[in-house]
Design brief:
There is one protein chain. This protein is of the alpha+beta class. It contains 15 helices and 18 strands. The chain has helices at 10-19, 38-44, 62-73, 117-137, 142-156, 184-190, 200-208, 227-232, 266-332, 342-373, 385-396, 422-438, 470-473, 497-507, 536-544, and strands spanning 23-27, 33-36, 80-89, 95-105, 108-115, 161-167, 174-178, 212-214, 237-245, 248-258, 381-384, 406-411, 416-420, 445-453, 456-463, 511-517, 521-528, 533-535. Strands 2-1-5-4-3 form a five-stranded antiparallel sheet. The radius of gyration is 42 Å and the shape is elongated. The two termini are 82 Å apart.
Length: 545
């Protein structure tokens, strides 16, 4: 209550009750009305002259009476209660949720009331709206979403029946979307209906891109061809909202039917427009998702075709290459006698070297195809990392080679062991060393470091070569992409090395990190997870168990 009537004189109290716009009522200890404001009388339809002798039970919804009377009777003098929800019978016959505030003073209860129906209705609409949006975000089945929309609207607008009509691929004919409250015999009649200026409410709304209201299907000219079907199923009014997508063709329509001639009320119009927008979002999201899935399947099919082609061609090329390499090796070594000229022997060596290089490229392409196809598997082995690094250094260095940069090795823990695919880790280290040598001048330096950090194994190759520009770093590691470097340095290659390296590291549950700065050098680190790292003492204990 905005004022306490019991603090006023009788004349002032009477004037206060008569002038206030709030619903106020004073009850006796037996819960009979002593006085009430005009707003309360208007709400309940009780004449002011008889209000003072009327039991409040007359206006309380039967199911709420016991709770209401007990709550008030238990109040002591000076005590009050607020936001007490009790349903009240309104003058129009509706049962309305009302928030009560009551204070006891002696044997009287001073009560203030406010209609909570609007707030509760809006809370219900908000909850329904969130429920549908959640279903859309979770990619629920479209029919399930549309059915849920219809049921929510039917609950918010008592007495109505909802349906959603969608358009076919040509955007000219109607398809049933959802209509849980309509008989299928009726919705089947509308299926494949062509939209137009006189195609009922739904077909016309889609055609004209405007809301169409048929207050009486029996007299509305747009329903001339369909009014008998509607009447046969007890449908007397229908209004429809087109489901729009900007300037693009509509998706369909959202319709609200009534079983008697009807003009949409304010609440109904608000609900219809809000949920028509939600339906449009659901349909658009589903179409976009379907297009995305189609594109993805096409891309996967194309990728699989490419991978299959690469694998097939790699196998086809290896057969003649093996013959070329084998025969050229036999010729260069004079296996079956001299060739007759040292020049021919040199040619044979060149053919052998070129064949080996081409075979290496084919092997890399084959690995790329296996990686993309998901068929590359790792073979778990237990080995010493320091020994493997030494083997790799022996492969990439030539005794007395003055045209290669200086190599230095720093292994923090020589006893560290790794459980991984030994051949794969060999390829990782060789790829990193080969790249560093390729892009580092002869007077430069390359460091290979093995460290145990944060429980994981870090194998790093650092050089002070030409480095990589910032714009190129984002593309490094993609198949067939090569960094733009100094044109005076040798930069032959396929651009597959880092892609294969990164893929091999990730197959082991690790990651590849690249740091670089132009003219200062590059550092690439292969990081293996902690569960693959063991020290030799631990390894011996493990082996003895």
């Amino acid at each position: 209550m905005s004022a306490s009537a019991q603090t006023l004189s009788p004349d002032h109290a009477a004037r206060f009750f008569n002038e206030t716009a709030e619903m106020l009522v004073v009850l006796s200890s037996t819960l009979t009305c002593i006085d009430a404001s005009p707003a309360f009388c208007d709400f309940t339809g009780q004449p002011p002259a008889s209000i003072s002798t009327t039991p409040i039970k007359t206006f309380i919804y039967d199911e709420d009476w016991e709770n209401f009377s007990t709550t008030l009777s238990n109040l002591r003098h000076g005590e009050k209660i607020t936001r007490f929800d009790v349903r009240v019978k309104a003058a129009n016959g509706a049962i309305c949720h009302v928030d009560w505030s009551a204070k006891r003073s002696g044997d009287a209860f001073y009560c203030g009331l406010s209609d909570a129906s609007e707030w509760l209705w809006r809370e219900s609409m908000r909850a329904a709206h969130e429920d549908i949006l959640s279903a859309i975000l979770n990619r629920k089945d479209l029919t399930q979403i549309l059915t849920s929309v219809c049921k929510h609207v039917e609950a918010l607008v008592p007495g109505c029946v909802c349906s959603v009509q969608l358009l076919d691929a040509t955007r000219t004919r109607i398809r049933n979307g959802a209509a849980p409250g309509l008989p299928t015999t009726y919705t089947d009649l509308l299926h494949d209906l062509e939209i137009g200026p006189n195609a009922g409410s739904c077909g016309t709304a889609i055609f004209t891109r405007t809301i169409v209201v048929a207050e009486s299907i029996r007299t509305d000219p747009r329903w001339e061809d369909y009014r008998e079907a509607a009447a046969a199923h007890g449908l007397a009014a229908c209004w429809s909202i087109p489901l729009l997508d900007g300037e693009n063709p509509p998706f369909g329509s959202f319709a609200i039917y009534h079983r008697h001639p009807h003009t949409p009320e304010k609440r109904e119009t608000e609900v219809g427009k809000i949920f028509a927008d939600v339906v449009a979002v659901a349909v658009k999201r589903r179409e976009e998702y379907n297009q995305l899935m189609t594109a993805r399947l096409e891309a996967e099919s194309a990728s699989k075709g490419k991978s299959d082609f690469l694998m097939h061609m790699s196998h086809e090329l290896r057969t003649p290459l093996n013959a070329i390499i084998g025969f050229s090796d036999a010729m260069a070594s004079n296996m079956f006698g001299p060739l007759g000229s040292d020049v021919y022997t040199g040619y044979a060596r060149d053919i052998h070297a070129s064949g080996e290089m081409l075979l290496s490229i084919i092997d890399r392409i084959l690995n790329v195809a296996r990686i993309e196809a998901g068929t590359l598997e790792i073979k778990e082995e237990f080995f010493c990392v320091a020994d493997l690094v030494a083997e790799c250094l022996h492969i990439v260095t030539l005794p007395g080679d003055k045209n290669s940069p200086r190599l230095e090795v720093a292994i923090a823990h020589p006893s560290i062991h790794l459980t991984a695919d030994r051949q794969a880790v060999t390829s990782i280290i060789l790829n990193l060393l080969s790249n560093a040598i390729k892009f580092t001048p002869a007077e430069g330096m390359i460091e290979i470091m093995v460290e145990h950090q944060d429980g994981g194994l870090h194998i790093s190759v650092r050089d002070n070569g030409v480095g990589i520009s910032e714009e190129s770093l984002s593309d490094i590691g993609k198949p067939f992409v090569r960094a733009k470097t100094n044109p005076n340095l040798r930069s032959d290659g396929t651009g597959l090395g880092l892609f294969i390296t990164r893929s091999l590291v990730e197959l082991h549950g690790g990651r590849l990190e690249i740091k670089s700065e132009p003219e200062k050098g590059t550092e690439v680190t292969a990081i293996f997870p902690t569960d693959r790292v063991t020290f030799s003492a631990e390894a011996k204990q493990s082996a003895s168990r």
